[in-house]
Amino acid sequence: MKKDLSVMKRYSICCGICILAASLLGACGSPKEGDSREGAKGGKEKVEEASKVTAVSVVKLRDTDFNHEIVSNGKVTGHERADLRFATGDAIITAVYVKNGSHVAKGARLAMLDDIELREKAEQAATALAKAELELKDALIGQGFDPDDAASVPPDVMRLARLRSGYTEAEANLTAAKRALSEAVLTAPFAGTVANLTGKPWNRPDGSKPFCTLIGAAMDVRFSILESELPLLAPGDRVEVSPYSSAQTYTGRVAEINPVVDENGLVEITASVAQGKGLFDGMNVKVSVLKSVGRQLVVPKSAVVVRSGRQVVFTLDKDGKRALWNYVQTGLENLDEYTITDGLEEGMDVIVSGNVNLAHEAPVAVMR
């Protein structure tokens, strides 16, 4: 009897364990809870997929006129530039009529030397010439010629009489004295601006350096371009000159091309700026040369990105929803654009913004 009760107790315990296990399994497989988890996961994936769509802007690739731009650094020099000095340094400077930065007209007085001694020499030379003229007339009369009728005197007789009388020498001395007197006044050989003025009144001119420098209104700009760019440039081409010290822009023309390539592969170009007011001799400037090279496939520089060391341009697919990766070859460039020589065709929609982190076939949305 005891044995039967023990068996029944073990049987009851086993049945209880089985019922508990079945209820737990049923709870884990609840359809409502499973559906809730799956729905939450699916919504998160849809949000993540929507966030991966990149907003981009595009332009239609067209064949258009392209202005190639050559940019270089240059230095300004005066087109007319003269270092002026007195012919003699013996006299004292009595007057200086200008200062650095003065604008003067052609022939204007710049400075003057003490000319008392020069005037005395000119007067002495004039007196000596008058005496020589009397000697010349006496010589001609002695040979039977009328001194007042020079045309009747044979040339060889007249030449000999001038030499013997000292007339030729006296005449040359007077010419030299008058020239020295005129050179006591320093004048402007052309209209321009005074620079590097060093002379002071009541001092003798420093013969080791110019009294001043005169710079004309027109300016030259010297700059260099690469040997490969030389075929794109010709005399008369338009250039734009911009000083680094201001926002002003000056227009000029290519005046000279030095036909020599230096050891660095550079060619020196000279451009002339007719209206150079505001440009200073020795000023550093940026030079830009615009040259039309005809119709080209042109893209903005922002459209070109680098992937694995190669240039890439992204375009839209036919549906306009995905970005396509295109290896390209660029040609000429200016500040804003590249020409495309290989990799794209006219009519393609080129992505010009939002392309920095794009991948091939990445989903995109075009901004309108």
Task: Describe this protein's structure.
The protein has 368 residues and is α+β, with helices and mostly antiparallel strands. Helices cover 28% and strands 37% of the residues. The strands form five sheets. A six-stranded antiparallel beta barrel has the order 2-10-13-12-11-14. A hairpin with a 3-residue loop joins strand 18 and strand 19.
Secondary-structure map:
Blueprint: H1 2-28, H2 31-51, E1 54-60, E2 63-78, E3 81-84, E4 93-96, E5 103-104, E6 109-113, H3 116-142, H4 155-165, H5 167-182, E7 185-187, E8 192-195, E9 212-215, E10 219-226, E11 238-243, E12 250-261, E13 266-273, E14 284-300, E15 304-307, E16 310-316, E17 323-327, E18 329-333, E19 337-342, E20 349-353, E21 364-366
Parallel strand pairs: 1-21
Antiparallel strand pairs: 1-20, 2-10, 2-14, 3-9, 4-6, 5-8, 6-7, 8-9, 10-13, 11-12, 11-14, 12-13, 14-19, 15-16, 16-17, 18-19
Helix pairs in contact: 3-4, 3-5
Concise summary:
With 368 residues, the chain is of the alpha+beta class. It is built from 5 helices and 21 strands.
